[in-house]
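Progress against Task 2.4 (sequence-to-structure conversion) is shown through the following example record, which the project officer requested during the mid-term review.
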Amino acid sequence: MFTGKKLSQLKLLLYIAGFLWIVHVAGSIFPLAGLGIIPRELHGLTGIIFAPFIHADFPHLIANSISLIILGFILASTEDSGIISILLAVMLLGGLGTWAIGRSGTVHIGASGVIYGILGYLIARGFFRKDFKSVIVSVLVLFMYGGMIFGVLPTVPHMSWESHLCGFLSGIITASSGKKRR
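C-alpha cells generated for the chain above:
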C-alpha cells in the first residue's frame, strides 16, 4: 500500500513517537522540564527545539503520542511533498508564537503544539489548494478532530492553550505558504 517516500514518512513519524518515549524515560533520570519554552526569556528560546519532546507524565505522553501518530499518518499518507518541512515549520513558528504570547512564569512542554499545527495544516490545506483530495481530507479531519479546536481556549489552568493556539495558527500559515510553492 505504501511505498517509497510515503513509507519513509510513516517510518519517520514512528521514529519521532519512539523518540518521545526515549526522552520521557531519560527525563526520569535527568531533569528536562526546564528545557521547555519559557515565554519572553532569552534562554527560553531553546525550548522551541526541545519542548515538543518533553512531557510531564505518562498520560500526557500517551495522549500526544496517539494524536501525533493518527494525525501524522493522515498527513504523511496525503501529502505529496515531504512532511519534514511541514513539521519543522509548525514546530518553529508555533514555538516562537508560544514564546511570544505564553503566560509569564510558565514552562511550556509537550508535542501538542506540533499536533495542533498538523491539525491546522490539514484543515487549511483544502482551503488553500482547492483540489479535490485536499478538500476531502480537510472536511474529514474537521469532522473527526474539530473538537480539538476548543483546546486553543484558556479553559484548563495547567494546559498550554498558547501552544495549541500558536501551533494551530502555524499550521494554517504553513498550509498557505504551501499553496505558493505549488
